[in-house]
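hi!! sorry for the late reply, been swamped w classes. u asked for the two structures so here they r. pasted raw, havent cleaned anything up. first the sequence of the first protein and right below it the tokens
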Amino acid sequence: MYEGKLIAVVMPAFREEKLIGETIRTVPEWVDHVFVIDDASSDRTGSEARAAADARTEVISHEVNQGVGGAIVTGHRRAIECGADISVVMAGDGQMDPRYLESLLQPVVRDGFGYAKGNRFFAADSFDGMPRHRLVGNLTLTLLTKAASGYWFLVDPQNGYTAVTSDVLRRLPLNRLSKRYEFENDMLVWLNILDVRVADVAIPARYGDEESAIRLRSTAPRLLSVLLKGFWRRMWRKYVLWSFSPIALLLFTGLFLVAFGSLVGAWTIAHTLGPATASAGTVILSVAPFVTGIQMLIQALALDIQATPK
């Protein structure tokens, strides 16, 4: 146990026969349960995991590949069944340094946070040596996830080194979470809807011989779709359905005014090409709603930032 809390480690693994054994052996002794989820690997991941297992380790094999999110959900469900207080995710490829596990747990155990995640980009030199396209991609994804999830202070949203309480897991619609690499982003959206406090913990990256299975061309469209749907789901559930908030009024009215002003402006431009000129009234009919709408959207953004669970 860790400070009186029963800890379970969920270890999703897909084709990790070379690394899974050593990863299992590095889990600290005070962890109570280790659930290795072999996500229908075509290699010897399952057998290597069983060979390295000790009394606290259970290997669960999926017959059909469900994706990393699906594997994590399976592990979280098993952690709840075993009575764990906190469920930690550590990938089967050894990227998540167990030396920082206590740092990840401390905000949850001592400070009352419901969820904690690692942040690899906590230092000024964290991006040094990273290719420009990956740098741009990480910054863009961070900004989009901030807007979709409402956790405006979080960085490195794809970091899968996480700790979550069983109480929070019971409140989450686990069957509705995304099953693949967009799992962390989707989970953050649901956590904000439930008003769960989230901590960002500085944990440096650790890379070795692992190979990434992410395919950008197929993952990026799914990720963008999840973020867009997640944003509107959060707006609807948190600011309309459960309590009609000024944020909803400002957002929807602002969007309407911006759209109206843009349409009138486009119509004005189209009908004044050449010798014709637009009247002052027509220009005002376009500009005034557009500017007012922009101001309302900025105010909605400011209120959403203030509403971040703290």
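now the second protein. again sequence first, tokens right under
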Amino acid sequence: MGQPTYSMDLRERVVAEVEEGASRREAAERFKVSVSSAIRWAKLHALTGGVQPRFRGGRPRSPLASHAPWLLDLIARAPDLTLDEIVVRITGDLGVTTSRSSVDRFYRRCGISFKKNGARRRTGTSGCESRPGGLEGKPTPS
């Protein structure tokens, strides 16, 4: 989680100014913050009694991460599967609802490409944790 832009002290002073009778716009101008921040902090104080910033997180990066071994084994056993076929297998075998783009992002993070080549094999490594770090294994220019 990143740091809040404004300090707790500043937030509390703006809210105190509003509680003393100043408008939110006047308090914002006095403390050189945006009007929307003053409005948001006053509303947050009215709802929660404080001006502590709310949690700024989201959902986990990938719902497929916990199924990584199964997904990597699936590609190892059947390298010619398309993304759509993998989505169908995930839904049927794991009971996880997902999308084609989510599956593609998961495999890209693992260093596995779905680009077709002459041998119709997947490029990349066999595991998510051992992702190559750059030009490893590629010939160096002379």
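hope this helps!! also noticed smth abt the second:
The two ends are 44 Å apart (CA to CA).
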